[in-house]
Amino acid sequence: MKYVIGIDVGTSGTKTVLFDEKGAVIASATIEYPMSQPQNGWAEQDPADWWNASAKTVKAVIEKSGVDASLIAGVGISGQMHGLVMLDGDGAVLRPSIIWCDQRTAEECADIERLIGGREELIRITANPALTGFTASKIMWVKKHEPEIYEKCRHILLPKDYIRYMLTGVYATEVSDASGMQLLDVPGRCWSDELLAALGIEKSLLAEVYESPEITGLVNDEAAALTGLKPGTPVVGGAGDNAAAAVGMGVVEDGLAFTTVGTSGVVFAHTDKITVDPKGRVHTFCCAVPGAWHVMGVTQAAGLSLRWLRDTVCAPECAEAEKQGVDPYKIMDAEAAESPVGANRLLYMPYLMGERTPHLDPNVRGGFVGLSAMHGRGDMIRAVMEGVSYSLKDCQGVLSGMGVDPESMRICGGGGKSPFWRQMLADVYGVPVTRVESDEGPALGVAILAMVGAGIYPTVRDACRAIVRTKETLPFDAERNARYGQFYEVYKSLYPHLKADFDALAAL
To answer: What's the count of helices (H) and strands (E) in the chain, helices before strands?
Structure first.
């Protein structure tokens, strides 16, 4: 039996899992670390925290499992996307990493689009408009505001790729994560010389780009001593967090997609042929399957909307949950189920944090529409769940308009644990919704990539067919689908009717 390790470098912590070659979890360990916010809207982390957590969790799973390190055939790394790690010529970190949720770069985004000749040109090259979360605008910010740091910089890496460097001494990345830097020619799967020239960024600063299952380097002696891995253990390209989760859920072929209902919501679909939204409403990135891509829509406040309602309105439900010894969301689900489809004509706009898909509008905000004195908390709970579902259907609709029309939807994230919400999503989408057996997501995804790199399986698709198993499929109900469709049409009209009002509020 051979084994592989999947490392997932998240925002709140790093999780490392040791799997056998059949995808079974042998041991798991997690270490958390802080995020700093030096100013309002800024978000930074110390790469040393990532490495400390990675090294210690790898060592922990090896020791906990008792597996001989010589049987570990490879390592895969996933992680938070878009973060900027700047190193000097000796490989030392020059400043804290500016991470994905940092919002300081609005001016730099405008600069990027101006320098390349407009948003359409940028989308032509990178398949996406300039966004504050992406890495290119962060590089431009450091170049403008910290020129002494930029002058010393010799290597630019993404968070997971810093862990690769510490494991192997190699400066490398792979196509899925590199797609989120906004410096990659996404159709061509290589750095864009045209864009780099326009932005004045030297190509020598960037790492070599690999496909996700390719071996990028070998564990060196120093890292082996810290982690317990055997020197020479292969480390594959790995993937950004969503691309890794897709592999972990088996979404690696046309016709397959998944929805994540976490704090934010994601609708992610695989496509063997590149397709780009000219309006930039969804992301098109290279995926972890060589020669393929994925399209992804984002709802900013999915599970966050329900958590907000729980914390502000649902004190009785929380008290009852404590009394019964259950999760408050279970009580909230039961109350929502007492309300009919449409929540007695109550709609919720889930724009608590602005919106990405399909509106790309930082000024829009949430709201209830149709609120009446007859409505109770159950109606409000159901309206929130339906509003988030309609927002996710917006994402599905953009993908469908691009010719990416999945036949079914897999589901993960905290919201995906709710049977009530899963059935609602199936009925709103009009496609079956399926759960997979493993909840390991990105860690399993990059472990599968490591298995391919180590030769245990010939391709990513072969590995997923052997390892990823589904455990429940909920068909959609045609009658409820039609009823939801009537409310969805009204929901879609709310944003255009209210956009000017949200802009006026933002200006006050």
So the answer is: 18, 24
| Burial (CB count within 10 angstroms: exposed 0-12, middle 13-18, buried 19+), residue 458 | exposed
According to DSSP, residue 277 is labeled -
Question: What whole-number distance in Å separates Cα of residue 157 and Cα of residue 152?
Answer: 15
pLDDT in tens, 142-190: 999 999 999 999 999 999 999 999 999 999 999 999 999 999 999 999 9
Tokens of 50: 């990532």
Q: List for the chain the helix, strand, coil content (%; round to 5).
A: 45, 20, 35
Is the model's pLDDT at 399 over the cut of 90? yes
Helix (H, G, I), strand (E, B) or coil at 419: helix
Rounded to 10°, the helix 106-116/135-145 angle is 100
Residues 6 or more apart whose CB falls under 8 angstroms from that of 496 comprise: none
Domains of the chain: 3-249+441-468 (3.30.420.40), 299-435+475-499 (3.30.420.40)
CA 204 and chain centroid, separation: 28
Please, are residues 247 and 288 in contact by the beta-carbon 8 Å criterion?
A: yes
Annotate 46-68 with b (16+ C-beta within 10 A) or e (fewer). bbebbbbbbbbbbbbbbeebebe
Q: Is 486 helix (H, G, I), strand (E, B) or coil?
A: helix
| pLDDT tens by residue, 191-227 | 999 999 999 999 999 999 999 999 999 999 999 999 9
Q: What is the DSSP string of 148-206?
A: HHHHH--EEE-HHHHHHHHHHS--EEEHHHHHTTT-EETTTTEE-HHHHHHHT--GGGB
Joined tokens for residue 115: 């320098």
Are 15 and 28 contacting, i.e. CB atoms less than 8 angstroms apart? Answer: yes
Q: Are 439 and 1 in contact (CB under 8 A)?
A: no
Run of H or E residues at 225: helix 221-227
Closest CA to 139 of 187, 88, 188, 196: 196
Burial 296-334 (b: 16+ CB within 10 A, else e): bbbbbbbbbbbbebbeeebeebbebbeeeeeebbbbbbe
Catalytic-labelled residue, pool 8, 161, 241, 277: 241
Write down the pLDDT at residue 413. 83
Residue 390: burial class (beta carbons within 10 Å; 0-12, 13-18, 19+): buried
Nearest CA to 215 out of 245, 238, 183, 192 is that of 238
Is residue 241 annotated as a catalytic residue, yes or no?
yes
